[in-house]
Design goal:
six-stranded mixed sheet; five-stranded mixed sheet; about 180 residues
Length: about 180
């Protein structure tokens, strides 16, 4: 029981900090999450609300990474398992077997897409002063993949631009 209360408290603090960060207009700040052990950061201007991963309804004949739809604050959102979409998870998650720390991150309404991504765990907010950008790796990468950063603890974070992701043909093509 204490775990659930601690998780709710963390989620409340993150939501408050996210709201405060959005109104302060920082130079650069991100929401940090983990997906299949990989650290990912999302620019706050593309991130929307955070929800518990409950109430998902599967949709037949869709890609393995498309988990289904969820009613988030009265709006129907398509839900993507981000780890599976990025190739970090190879098996399809059962909707009824999601972990307690799993969350849905809805895209900001300004992105123009009624989507949410499933993340395995929230890791808080990161500011420009907390991260050091690493040199870009050679080779092609998706247009939604931003810079790679390292924090003071040595954790590496890959930036994902949700607005660019929402425009990707592969992301939009959920049917099999």
């Amino acid at each position: 029981m204490a775990k659930r209360e601690a998780l709710r408290e963390l989620q409340s603090r993150l939501a408050e900090r996210l709201q405060a960060a959005l109104t302060e207009v920082p130079a650069a700040s991100w929401l940090a999450v983990e997906c299949a052990g990989q650290g990912l950061i999302f620019p706050l201007q593309g991130a929307g609300e955070i929800f518990t991963a409950a109430g998902l309804l599967p949709v037949a004949h869709t890609r393995p990474w498309f988990l289904g739809v969820a009613n988030l604050r009265g709006g129907l959102h398509g839900v993507v398992d981000l780890a599976a979409f990025l190739g970090l998870r190879t098996h399809r998650l059962a909707v009824d077997a999601l972990g307690d720390q799993s969350r849905l991150l809805a895209f900001n309404p300004t992105v123009g897409s009624h989507c949410a991504v499933l993340v395995d765990r929230l890791s808080g907010l990161r500011g420009a002063g907390q991260l050091t950008r690493l040199p870009d790796a050679p080779g092609a990468r998706p247009v939604f993949a931003g810079g790679i950063y390292r924090d003071g603890g040595g954790q590496v974070w890959q930036e994902i631009d949700l607005a660019a992701l929402a425009r990707q043909e592969q992301f939009l093509g959920i049917g099999v």
